[in-house]
Specification:
3 domains
Length: 414
């Protein structure tokens, strides 16, 4: 008897288990409206954004919104399968991307005081203004009332106020884009100020960064009107110390260095990746949970070396390449990696994590400055990281050059 022909695998097969659970959870309310019971819907909305390629330009909130709408579309079907689920997600993704971006304003704060300085910057797609108070046309009454109702505190009066004019296809995308561009500017400033800091000499736990975001953020239409009484806040935010006071001379020195960094970024063929490095670096050093900061900063190191495999040795090899004694750097980074792995699974590591955090900070900063100052000499981010794979000992490096010259002669037509 001939064997039944085995069905070939489909690229959508990985969606079928989710679709089966949604099928079992389908229901209708008393009015006949389709929906789901149990946890299948929540599980699906949580995992589907990672199972389907939605592109890089969507925020996490927008991805979940698209997936949620697709699931409820499929609830109307007699049977949900991976094909139907994928088609519904793609339909809502395309509809979302057809939306025309709208203008928004994010109102927030930064832990700095400016002496008689009003600052304006263009970063990414955003226009950023930093001053010591918000203009009167920014209305926050409803959000402040809701903040008080929840017994939460506003941004400290000592903090400089920030307005970020940005755009997005949704409120969430505009908000995240605005904070991302602000964090890029903050990241440049913190990189400049932190590079010469090898530790701290103070009692108590304090963040590495001196220039941090405030706790309380609101989103407005382009004319300053509140979009709702909702607000965003930093749940881990705590008052740490008086804000950094930037005198006119301090600010002038900082801004001169900032302009140099931004010129280097513009000249780099992979400026988008350098921006991401700086944002990850700065966000990792905002909090005073040193174990969490160590894990986040190691993620920035992995990104700067283009390595996301936790079992790979290339992240350490590439980071060590830039140092005069690569063997020593390799030893230090292996120790930090082991502590980082412990920090993922354990608690109570703050007592030892701070010293390692400042050590890891130096390696990440070295990589960022390498990409900033030498990036323009490479054609791509991948090529720059491949450069870091070259041998570090001179005999092997010279042998590599000789073999490359031989190969070039061999491949060149006579």
């Amino acid at each position: 008897m001939p064997r039944a022909k085995k069905r070939s695998a489909s690229p959508l097969d990985h969606l079928d288990p989710v679709a089966r659970q949604l099928n079992r959870a389908k229901t209708r309310d008393t009015g006949g409206k389709p929906g789901f019971t149990g946890s299948a819907y929540d599980d699906a909305v949580g995992v589907l954004p990672f199972l389907v390629n939605l592109g890089d330009e969507l925020t996490h909130a927008d991805r979940h919104s698209i997936v949620s709408k697709a699931c409820f579309d499929c609830a109307k079907l007699e049977r949900i399968d991976g094909v139907a689920l994928s088609a519904a997600i793609e339909r809502h993704r395309v509809e979302f991307l057809k939306r025309a971006p709208k203008l928004y304003v994010v109102a927030t704060a930064i832990s700095a005081r400016l002496d008689r300085i009003d600052l304006h910057r263009t970063v990414g797609v955003s226009e950023i203004d930093i001053t010591n108070r918000l203009p009167k046309w920014i209305r926050q009454e409803r959000a402040l009332g809701n903040l008080k109702f929840h017994k939460l505190t506003e941004n400290p009066t000592e903090y400089a106020r920030v307005l970020v004019r940005t755009s997005g296809r949704s409120e969430h995308s505009a908000f995240e884009r605005g904070l991302y561009d602000l964090d890029c500017l903050r990241g440049i400033w913190n990189l400049i100020r932190n590079t010469e800091r090898f530790g701290r000499y103070a009692v108590g736990r304090l963040p590495v960064n001196g220039l941090r975001r405030g706790r309380f953020h609101t989103l407005h239409s382009s004319d300053g009107i509140e979009l709702s009484e909702e607000f965003w806040y930093e749940p881990e935010w705590q008052w740490h110390e008086p804000p950094e006071r930037l005198s006119e001379s301090d600010a002038a020195s900082l801004f001169k260095a900032e302009m140099r960094v931004r010129r280097l970024m513009e000249a780099c063929p992979y400026a988008r990746q350098v921006t991401e490095m700086i944002v990850r670096y700065s966000r990792a050093l905002d909090g005073k949970d040193y174990g969490f900061a160590l894990v986040s900063l190691w993620g920035a190191l992995e990104f700067a070396t283009r390595d996301t495999d936790p079992n790979s040795q290339s992240v350490i090899k590439r980071a060590a390449f830039l140092w005069p004694d690569p063997a020593y750097a390799t030893t230090i980074l292996r120790g930090i990696r082991d502590l980082r792995n412990d920090a993922v699974h354990a608690t109570g590591l703050d007592a030892v994590a701070e010293r390692h955090l400042y050590s890891l900070k130096r390696y990440v900063e070295k990589l960022i400055w390498f990409h900033l100052e030498k990036g323009r000499t490479f054609t791509s981010f991948g090529e720059a990281c491949e450069f870091l794979d070259l041998p570090t000992d001179l005999p092997n490096l010279r042998n590599r050059v000789r073999n490359s010259s031989r190969a070039l002669r061999w491949r060149t037509p006579s």
